[in-house]
Amino acid sequence: MTDAHAGPFIAAIDQGTTSSRCIVFDKDGRIVSVDQKEHEQIFPKPGWVEHNANEIWNNVQEVVAGAIEKGGITAADVKAIGITNQRETTLLWDKNTGEPVHNAIVWQDTRTDALCRELGRNVGQDRFRRETGLPLASYFSGPKVRWMLDNIDGLRERAERGDILFGTMDSWVIWNLTGGVNGGKHVTDVTNASRTMLMNLHTMEWDEKIAQSMEVPMEVLPEIRSSAEVYGEVKEGVLAGVPVASALGDQQAALFGQTCFSEGEAKSTYGTGTFLLMNTGSKIINSYSGLVTTVGYKIGDEAPVYSLEGSIAVTGALVQWMRDQMGLINTAPEIETLAASVEDNGGAYVVPAFSGLFAPYWRSDARGVIAGLTRYVTKAHIARAVLEATAWQTREITDAMTKDSGVELTSLKVDGGMTSNNLLMQTLSDFLDVPVVRPMVAETTCLGAAYAAGLAVGFWPDTDALRANWRRAAEWTPHMDPAKRDHEYKYWLKAVERTMGWLEHDES
Questions:
Q1: Known binding-site residue numbers for ATP
Q2: Cα–Cα distance, 233 to 246 (Å, whole number)
Q3: What is the three-state SS of 460-504?
Q4: Which residue positions form the known binding site for ADP?
Q5: CA–CA gap between residue 383 and residue 389 (Å, rounded)
Q6: What domains does the chain contain, in order, with CATH numbers?
Q7: Which residues form the Carbohydrate kinase FGGY C-terminal domain (predicted)?
Q8: What residues are designated binding site for sn-glycerol 3-phosphate?
Q9: What are the Cα distances from residue 391, in Å, to 164, 314, 337, 492?
Q10: Which long-range CB contacts under 8 A does 472-476 form with residues at least 24 apart?
Q11: What is the pLDDT of residues 237-293, one digit of tens each?
């Protein structure tokens, strides 16, 4: 260990969709050590996606121990630990045994499609939108809870008796860290609660009427807290005694880590899916363009900050699909080399509506297409079309944000695994016609959780201190002919239309 890394430190756990990791940061927001471990993706049926929550909790404990060991530090050096998590992934567990009653149902899972249509009744997707900011979609947690209560024998009775706890992954991790069956804290933060479809954005509390409509008993719901406060202490393991001091859904954590603290500032995180959030300050902006309204963050007793969000279900996952299911590449980075070997997409467009289309369409009947195929098209053209799909989907979201908020995007801060792909970043700048900026620390999700935890325990004095830490690593500027951009966008939108209405209602 070098002198540059003298303590104190803040640790952050990122419980993500494909892996869990722990990162230790110093005062300057620099990474001291990292440990990471993947968990199994379980696909019981087409459209169903599950995780084993016990496997995830074991992995979390391992990566925390690993990061501490790699950093050569002790619990005494760690002032707080923050949590960030894959959002909407839904778990019910028995509070007396600590055992999950079923695998966690992952955000990408579409098994609640029919239930969501039924819940929409004569109103449709907007039935709970005014209160929750969300459209009725299989993406969110509330309907997933209802599905488990309806489909697991005896579960509803146990839930109404008060023996069952519901949580998104932040709640599961915090409950276990703070003691589990021995006094574990059953809490969630406002950002995660705002993704369940059960929280009222205006009151920041569970909405009893909606819970009733969804037939989710209030007894299972965690207590809603701010995103930055001490929820409890770690009870055992290498960090025993360290305060657990923040929780933020991964996309909100990235907004925070990118220091988008002013109205109109936006970030886009490129992971399994892609999520673009724009800070809208104290204003709850209802979207008429297919975005969702969500809580950006809430620091302790301060007023909540809201944001508009555009969610894209499949971006990085499309590259994984090219690798694992299609065998067109052997490693994810290879896609850039392959795509760069051709000048353009050769007329091909890939729309990865694997689990329907998220924003701005919210169409669960859509399925993926590759359009515009001719004999001319090679796997290199397909690779290029795969990267372009991520950029075009982002463009659709930024267009919707401008419509809803009236704020023109002037630049886009990006983060996440895919930002190491320079061709994709240049394409993004070309398609959006704005500069694309990547910060020094690309792990902004973990950084955001660390920042919030650090604020909660006074490790950093205020958000200005955090802004001072933000450093630019790279910037891409647009140089695409506008006529060509418009022409390509037109064909992209044409390809998107071809995905819709693929599934008949009775099978979706």
A1: 17-19, 272, 316, 320, 417
A2: 12
A3: CCCHHHHHHHCCEEEEECCCCCHHHHHHHHHHHHHHHHCCCCCCC
A4: 17, 21, 272, 316, 417, 421
A5: 10
A6: 9-258 (3.30.420.40)
A7: 267-456
A8: 17, 87-88, 139, 250
A9: 42, 12, 17, 11
A10: 472/437, 472/438, 472/439, 472/440, 473/438, 473/439, 473/440, 473/442, 474/425, 474/437, 474/438, 475/435, 475/436, 475/437, 475/438, 476/422, 476/425, 476/426, 476/428, 476/429, 476/435, 476/436
A11: 999 999 999 999 999 999 999 999 988 888 999 988 899 999 999 999 988 888 999
**Cβ atoms 134, 292 nearer than 8 A:** yes
Calpha distance 222→206 (Å, rounded): 9
- pLDDT tens, residue by residue, 446-504: 999 999 999 999 999 999 999 988 888 899 999 999 999 999 999 999 999 999 999 88
* Cβ-Cβ contacts under 8 Å for 408 (sequence gap 6 or more): 402
Radius of gyration of the chain (CA): 22
| Three-state DSSP state, 270 | strand
Q: What share of the chain is helix, strand, coil (3-state, %, to 5)?
A: 35, 25, 40
What are the binding residues?
17-19, 21, 87-88, 139, 250-251, 272, 316, 320, 417, 421
Beta-carbon contacts of residue 134 (< 8 Å; ≥ 6 apart): 128, 140, 195, 197, 292, 293, 294
Mean per-residue pLDDT of the chain: 93
pLDDT band at 417 (very low <50, low <70, confident <90, very high): confident
**Separation of alpha carbons 65 and 183, rounded Å:** 22
User: Residue 101 is encoded by which pair of tokens?
Assistant: 């009653």
For residues 11 and 225, what is the distance between their CA atoms, to the nearest angstrom? 20
Contact 414, 432 (CB under 8 A): no
**What span, in angstroms and rounded, lies between the C-alpha atoms of 295 and 204?**
9
Q: What is the rounded average pLDDT of the residues 285-310?
A: 94
Closest C-alpha among 90, 216, 108 to residue 160: 216
What secondary structure does DSSP assign to 114-152, as a single string? HHHHHHHTTT-TTTTHHHHS--S-TTSHHHHHHHHHHHS
β-partners of residue 415 are 269
Q: Are 430 and 480 in contact (CB under 8 A)?
A: yes
